[in-house]
């Protein structure tokens, strides 16, 4: 099975529980877009593992029949298309939203793209109403996704360290790749950053480890909110 087909299969399977038709991504989509969507579904599965109810909504607040993914960095309030996000609701806890490819304002005031981000729903609603980007302090979990056919360049790891610092709460900022790099992994580990490599559907051990890490982030969220 090709990489794109295996990613699309996993994405469709995860979303089909609530969405009646296939999402906007297909086997013809760019592999990096599919990889971000795949990691997005792993986050949803991790939340479900911990008892969250998962549903879906588009930028207009409607329940979609088709999940429309962003395929380039965008604003959470963009109505260029009926972009969709997931609602994550843990009983008795503040509701969350999960997004792909949204810009977030860092502590420095600079805007950064979060390949996948989970944030407080009240923040997301305010941002859509006022057409402003989410603040980094309201982001519960963020993932930088890199899909490469060669080992990850060290420069990408260095860039992630800066990104994670500006987004704050580094324990819930993840660098996730489909390949690996000894240098990049050593660099991230020495700087206390969270990372996972070899993430693809057939890599069951790495995928399970990442899913468990996301569970830990949600566990901690539930403990303090």
Number of domains: 1
Might you state the CATH topology name?
A: Trna Endonuclease, Chain: A, domain 1
Question: How many helices?
Answer: 6
Strand content: 15-25%
Global structural class: alpha/beta
Low-confidence stretches: none
Helix coverage percent: 25-40%
From the spread of the alpha carbons, the general shape counts as globular
Structure summary, number of beta strands: 7
Radius of gyration: 16 Å
**The CATH architecture:** 3-Layer(aba) Sandwich
| CATH class annotation | Alpha Beta
Task: Note the gap between the termini.
Answer: 42 Å
Could you describe the largest sheet, including whether it forms a barrel?
7 strands, mixed
How confident is the prediction overall: mean pLDDT?
Answer: 93
| Helix-strand pattern | HHEEEEHEHEHEH
- Could you give the order of strands across the largest sheet? 1-2-3-4-5-6-7
Description:
- With 225 residues, the protein is an alpha/beta fold.
- The chain has a single domain, classed as 3-Layer(aba) Sandwich (Trna Endonuclease, Chain: A, domain 1).
- The protein is 38% helix and 21% strand.
- It contains 6 helices and 7 strands.
- Strand 6, helix 5 and strand 7 form a beta-alpha-beta unit.
- Helix 1 packs parallel to helix 2, helix 2 crosses helix 6 and helix 4 runs parallel beside helix 5.
- The longest helix has 21 residues.
- The protein is globular and about 45 Å long.
